[in-house]
Amino acid sequence: MEAKAVARFVRISPRKADRVLREIRGLQVERAQEVLALSPRSAARTISKVLTSAVANAAVKDESVAIDGLFVRTALADPGPSLKRIQPRAQGRAYRILHRLSHITIVVGEPN
User: Whole-prediction pTM value?
Assistant: First the structure.
Protein backbone atom coordinates (compact mmCIF):
# COMPACT_ATOMS: atom_id res chain seq x y z
CA MET A 1 0.00 0.00 0.00
CA GLU A 2 1.36 3.39 -1.04
CA ALA A 3 0.22 6.95 -0.47
CA LYS A 4 1.53 10.06 -2.14
CA ALA A 5 1.64 13.80 -1.46
CA VAL A 6 2.79 16.52 -3.85
CA ALA A 7 3.59 20.16 -3.13
CA ARG A 8 3.69 22.12 -6.37
CA PHE A 9 5.27 25.48 -7.13
CA VAL A 10 7.27 25.58 -3.90
CA ARG A 11 9.70 28.50 -3.84
CA ILE A 12 12.76 26.34 -3.17
CA SER A 13 15.41 25.44 -5.70
CA PRO A 14 15.12 21.75 -6.68
CA ARG A 15 18.84 21.33 -6.05
CA LYS A 16 18.56 22.59 -2.48
CA ALA A 17 15.40 20.58 -1.81
CA ASP A 18 17.07 17.41 -3.10
CA ARG A 19 19.85 17.78 -0.50
CA VAL A 20 17.25 17.42 2.25
CA LEU A 21 15.29 14.69 0.46
CA ARG A 22 18.43 12.56 0.13
CA GLU A 23 18.66 12.50 3.94
CA ILE A 24 15.18 10.99 4.43
CA ARG A 25 14.88 8.68 1.42
CA GLY A 26 14.38 5.10 2.62
CA LEU A 27 13.93 6.00 6.30
CA GLN A 28 11.04 5.08 8.52
CA VAL A 29 8.50 7.94 8.69
CA GLU A 30 9.05 8.72 12.38
CA ARG A 31 12.83 8.80 11.92
CA ALA A 32 12.45 10.99 8.83
CA GLN A 33 10.35 13.50 10.81
CA GLU A 34 13.07 13.62 13.48
CA VAL A 35 15.77 14.23 10.87
CA LEU A 36 13.72 17.03 9.29
CA ALA A 37 13.00 18.64 12.66
CA LEU A 38 16.74 18.84 13.42
CA SER A 39 17.84 19.89 9.94
CA PRO A 40 19.15 23.47 9.70
CA ARG A 41 18.05 23.85 6.05
CA SER A 42 15.02 25.99 5.25
CA ALA A 43 13.62 23.39 2.83
CA ALA A 44 13.21 20.92 5.71
CA ARG A 45 10.14 22.72 7.07
CA THR A 46 8.24 22.48 3.77
CA ILE A 47 9.33 18.89 3.19
CA SER A 48 8.15 17.98 6.69
CA LYS A 49 4.69 19.30 5.82
CA VAL A 50 4.60 17.24 2.62
CA LEU A 51 5.67 14.13 4.54
CA THR A 52 2.94 14.71 7.12
CA SER A 53 0.42 15.05 4.30
CA ALA A 54 1.58 11.78 2.71
CA VAL A 55 1.14 9.97 6.04
CA ALA A 56 -2.34 11.46 6.43
CA ASN A 57 -3.19 10.34 2.89
CA ALA A 58 -2.08 6.82 3.80
CA ALA A 59 -4.33 6.84 6.87
CA VAL A 60 -7.32 7.99 4.81
CA LYS A 61 -6.64 5.53 1.99
CA ASP A 62 -6.40 2.51 4.29
CA GLU A 63 -7.51 2.96 7.89
CA SER A 64 -5.95 -0.33 9.00
CA VAL A 65 -2.44 0.73 8.00
CA ALA A 66 0.09 1.01 10.84
CA ILE A 67 1.67 4.44 10.61
CA ASP A 68 4.63 3.14 12.61
CA GLY A 69 5.45 0.72 9.79
CA LEU A 70 5.52 3.26 6.94
CA PHE A 71 8.73 4.12 5.11
CA VAL A 72 9.64 6.91 2.71
CA ARG A 73 9.70 4.97 -0.57
CA THR A 74 10.22 7.87 -2.99
CA ALA A 75 11.24 11.48 -2.42
CA LEU A 76 11.69 13.71 -5.47
CA ALA A 77 12.20 17.39 -6.19
CA ASP A 78 11.35 18.10 -9.81
CA PRO A 79 12.01 21.53 -11.33
CA GLY A 80 9.05 23.81 -11.85
CA PRO A 81 8.87 27.09 -13.73
CA SER A 82 11.35 29.85 -12.97
CA LEU A 83 10.36 33.37 -11.97
CA LYS A 84 12.39 35.80 -14.06
CA ARG A 85 13.48 38.98 -12.32
CA ILE A 86 16.10 41.66 -13.04
CA GLN A 87 18.88 43.12 -10.93
CA PRO A 88 19.87 46.69 -11.88
CA ARG A 89 23.58 47.01 -12.57
CA ALA A 90 26.00 49.81 -13.45
CA GLN A 91 25.64 51.98 -16.57
CA GLY A 92 21.98 51.08 -17.16
CA ARG A 93 22.50 47.36 -17.53
CA ALA A 94 20.30 44.69 -15.98
CA TYR A 95 21.23 41.15 -14.96
CA ARG A 96 18.68 38.38 -14.98
CA ILE A 97 17.84 36.61 -11.72
CA LEU A 98 16.00 33.28 -11.78
CA HIS A 99 13.94 32.32 -8.76
CA ARG A 100 13.59 28.59 -9.20
CA LEU A 101 10.45 26.72 -8.15
CA SER A 102 10.11 23.01 -7.52
CA HIS A 103 7.50 20.30 -7.28
CA ILE A 104 8.15 18.07 -4.23
CA THR A 105 6.76 14.53 -4.32
CA ILE A 106 6.89 12.08 -1.42
CA VAL A 107 5.54 8.52 -1.56
CA VAL A 108 5.23 6.52 1.66
CA GLY A 109 4.47 2.84 1.91
CA GLU A 110 5.10 -0.38 3.71
CA PRO A 111 8.51 -2.04 3.37
CA ASN A 112 8.99 -4.48 0.51
Answer: 0.91
